[in-house]
Amino acid sequence: MHYSNWLIGVKNRASIRNACKTPPNMDRNKRGPLNVDMQNNNPQPNDKTRDLTATTHLWRKGYKTIKKIGEGTFSDVLKTQSLKDGKFYACKTMKQTINSLEQANNLREVQAMKRLSPHANIIQLHELIFDKETGTVSLICELMEMNIYEFIQGRQTPLPDTTVKNYLYQLCKSLEHMHSCGIFHRDVKPENILIKQNGLKLGDFGSCRSVYSKPPHTEYISTRWYRAPECLLTDGYYGLKMDMWSAGCVFFEIMSLSPLFPGTNELDQVAKIHDVLGTPDLSILQKSRAIHFNFPPKKGSGISRLVPHCPPPALSLLYQMLAYDPDERITAETALRHTYFRETR
Ligand SMILES: Nc1ncnc2c1ncn2[C@@H]1O[C@H](COP(=O)(O)OP(=O)(O)OP(=O)(O)O)[C@@H](O)[C@H]1O
Ligand SMILES: [Mg+2]
């Protein structure tokens, strides 16, 4: 079957909530609220009303709004100050409204944050706020300085290897912790990785899933540029190793200051991966339950020419994180023991 024909079929399946979850565009600054199906049918207030509602309900619960610091597909994020303890927090207010506090507590993101905390590399949930009147739910979280995308955006000179290594080590630690708790993230990307000075924490658990849930996972596909081959080529037969692929893409991006596979659509995404890594053996595709696509055999250009100054241990780890076959791909636990991190451990 030709890949583009299969894609048309997949996109027509209404159950794929996030097939249209737009990745960062070529111009990432153009990212705005994206056209995704929400999990309920409540009418969504427009931006102005939502901002006002969020501010009012936060004030009632003892939080002063300082400024807007982020926006994602599903939420607006504000810097707030608690009137109780005087501390600053990030407040993530969901665009989706809900009906009860119980529903708020049952949100996948809330459950995951509770289960994963406390951990040095996981964003901590401080308080969950539900406003009955408006159905608004806000997550009061620890405040970070910026996300990794903001950190590397506009930089001209590469970061010192010690900085790259420090951040990647912490990212692997966060994934090792998540995976050992039986959860995988499914949306590891620079915008969801937050930093404060030398510390790094993984955030945005809205897409995570239990490692015990049986595939096919049809309701969600992570942001395109960071999407592993098994997510692109199968009908939902992927698992926790997809996070390691995404982390590998982030690793490359921190090192080179530009994305590794900036596909403009799913077809182009696969082509970009094959341009660098080459087309996989048929055996990998068969084993992974990939639909039988007839990709013209291609030898990849390799990653090393894209990062000519990359230290050999970093390149070795990068290749292991970007193994096409998820069974061959390194786990977070093994990655932490890689020689690249010898001085970090
Ligand atoms: N704790 C925090 N501290 C500082 N900034 C934050 C924090 N949490 C989120 N942000 C900022 O807000 C942005 C959006 O947050 P988040 O990714 O959690 O929202 P989302 O709606 O789930 O996004 P997505 O589009 O990835 O699904 C982040 O990229 C980040 O820049
Ligand atoms: Mg996000």
Automatic annotation (TrEMBL):
Q: Where does this protein hold ATP?
A: 92
* Record-linked Gene3D superfamilies: Phosphorylase Kinase, domain 1, Transferase(Phosphotransferase) domain 1
Q: Which UniProt keywords apply?
A: ATP-binding, Kinase, Nucleotide-binding, Serine/threonine-protein kinase, Transferase
- Renumbered to this chain, region (Disordered) spans 22-50
Q: Does the keyword Kinase apply?
A: yes
Is the keyword Electron transport in the record? Answer: no
Q: Which GO terms describe its molecular function?
A: ATP binding; protein serine/threonine kinase activity
**Which InterPro entries does the entry link to?**
Kinase-like_dom_sf (IPR011009), MAPK (IPR050117), Prot_kinase_dom (IPR000719), Protein_kinase_ATP_BS (IPR017441), Ser/Thr_kinase_AS (IPR008271)
What cofactors does the UniProt entry give for this protein?
Mg(2+)
The Protein kinase domain covers which part of the protein? 63-341
- Biased composition (Polar residues) is annotated at 37-50
Query: Of which family is this protein a member?
Result: Belongs to the protein kinase superfamily.
Protein name as it appears in the record: MAPK/MAK/MRK overlapping kinase
User: In which organism is this protein found?
Assistant: Liparis tanakae
Q: Which gene encodes it?
A: MOK
